[in-house]
What we know:
7% of the residues lie in helices and 44% in strands. The protein has helices spanning 106-111, 147-154; strands spanning 16-19, 23-26, 37-40, 44-46, 52-55, 62-70, 76-87, 92-95, 98-99, 101-104, 114-117, 123-132, 138-141, 161-171, 184-188. Strands 10-15-14-12-13 form a five-stranded mixed sheet. By secondary structure, it is mainly β. The protein is built from two helices and 15 strands.
Amino acid sequence: xxxxxxxxxxxxxxxxxxxxxxxxxxxxxxxxxxxxxxxxxxxxxxxxxxxxxxxxxxxxxxxxxxxxxxxxxxxxxxxxxxxxxxxxxxxxxxxxxxxxxxxxxxxxxxxxxxxxxxxxxxxxxxxxxxxxxxxxxxxxxxxxxxxxxxxxxxxxxxxxxxxxxxxxxxxxxxxxxxxxxxxxxxxxx
Length: 189
């Protein structure tokens, strides 16, 4: 076996893959060339590049990745690693990129993008509900306020609260809709 030139380092308590997204992974056996390493698991596919794989976990709470390395003497070494499968946590609603409570002018809100934020994930907002204090809610398809929202803001007064709720999101590049996103508010100045 050739002298290893790199270490494999992992955080044992953090062995998690997320359902609904492609989880990039690097899989190798120290001292074994990439063409002599094979890995298998439900949802695991070979990526481009040495040791690169993509994991798209399905149902269940765990997935076992089995790895086999073929040595120069034609013997084999085997190992496996268990990963927990988790759903992506619910993102937080944001107005103009700022989550939670916001304040500003009607003009700023009219041009702000409605988004959902969670570190290390990119979301696309597909729909939300726009509510101005004391007025009926407006359901909006997309991620920007529409003419109905602008009309509701025109009737609003300084100090009124706009609530962006029922935010429907999906991971960019995926068709999977996520759990409820927390609302964002905007106080009109």
